[in-house]
Structures are given as structure tokens and as C-alpha cells.
Amino acid sequence: MKSLTHIKFLYVLFILFACSSVVKNPTPTHQAFQASLVSEKEYGIQVGDQLDIKFFYNSELNEQVTVRPDGRISLQLVHDVTVAGLTPSELTQHLKQKYAPELKKPEIAVIVRSFGGYRIYVDGEVNKSGMFPLVGHTTVLQALSLAGGMKDTARASEVVIIRRGEFNKPLAFQVNLRKVIDSTDMSQDIALQPFDIVYVPKSAIANVNVWVDQYIRKNIPIDFSTGFGYSF
To answer: Least buried of 40, 55, 191, 201, by fewest C-beta within 10 Å?
Structure first.
């Protein structure tokens, strides 16, 4: 029986897919446009990120902290500080204001050492669907490897990627991983962005098998295991 979390994820996936338009076989121009959606926006600190807080003139206050589930970090002198959603530069200015009453001239740098908040989601005809951390450069095929690979029932030629577009409007497009596997078009193995959803649909024959199982085997009292004989 599927967990409640998985059911909720499938529901969100259905809503996003229903509200988005699908672009098949993205061209390099389309890929460049997609990449710009994230690259033009400064990174926002996420829960689970590891931060280095450096004080140029007060090294005894230097800290390496992890953003807690409540979106906060704890620092000397100023205690709990809400950081989730702020960019590193915004947090730098915020900390300068917080430390101004305590230090004569606070000069601070915020460095994101590791990214714990970026995730991707893989579902459909894979062996281990779920949420996975996005660490560095990760392509669609690499994400499917994290999910234990595709099942024999997967439709590798029509893998769907759902991505947050401008104003969080979902964008969906298809990639043909068969062309990646046989090395005829490696551009189909696109790089994923934070919060992308990778959905692998069932093949046509798999859908037929489901229909046979649901509407024939379970409703008609025939022993299919014995097979049929044909004469021509």
C-alpha cells in the first residue's frame, strides 16, 4: 500500500502536469531558456544548507552552521537568526545590522559550503521513486540511476520533465532517453534544476497488460497460464 506522502506527491504531479504544456524534444534554444530561469536568480538559502559565517576582524566569532528545519541558525551574541529564503548577500547585510550593537565595525561574509535544500523528484516506471538531493551537475539519466533505473515497462522515449517556470508556473517537456542510450542524441540528457520532477510513463504494452489484468483475468474465469493453441 502506498504511503500517504507518496499519494500526495502523485496528486501534485497530476495537477502540475494537467496545468502545463508539454514541449517535445527540447532544442538547444529551449534548454538555454530553461537554464536562465535559475541562473539569473541569486541562490536562496534553504533548510539543510551548511553555512560558513566569517568575521574579518573578530575570528573568534566564526561559525560553521547548518540551517535547521525551522529555517534558523544559532550564532554567538545574536542567538537565533532566520535565514531560510534569504540570499547570501541579504543575510550578510542582515547579520551586519544584528551585530552592529555588539561590534564596532562588523565585516562579515556568508559562504554556502554545501547545499542541503535542493531536491529533485523521480516517479513513474522506476525501481525506487521518491525525492533525491540535487548535488552538482545532475542529468535526467543520472537522476534515474539514483532511482534504481527504469523498469522494463518504462517508455524511455517520452520521459516527462516538469519544471518551475517564471512566477512558479509549471512547464513540462519530453526528452527521448532512447536516443541517449543508443548515443544518437546526447542533448536529450539535459541537466536538471532544483525541484524538477522526472516522470517516466508506462510503455504501450505495459498499459495493455494492465488492462488485460484488470478487465480480463479478474473478470473472466479462464486459466491463462495454460496458454492457447492455434492452427493455421
So the answer is: 40
Where the chain has pLDDT below 70, the residues are 1-41, 205-232
Residue 133 CA, chain-centre distance (Å), reads: 7
What is the pTM (predicted TM-score) of this model? 0.56
Identify the CA nearest to 199 among candidates 120, 136, 117.
Answer: 120
- In this structure, how many other beta carbons lie within 10 angstroms of the beta carbon of residue 178? 15
C-alpha span between 137 and 34 (Å, rounded): 15
Dihedral sign of CA atoms 149, 154, 157, 162 in order: negative
C-alpha distances in Å from residue 72, one per residue of 64, 81, 92: 13, 5, 14
Tell me which of 3.30.1950.10, 2.120.10.30, 3.90.550.10, 1.10.287.3510 is the CATH number of domain 50-114: 3.30.1950.10
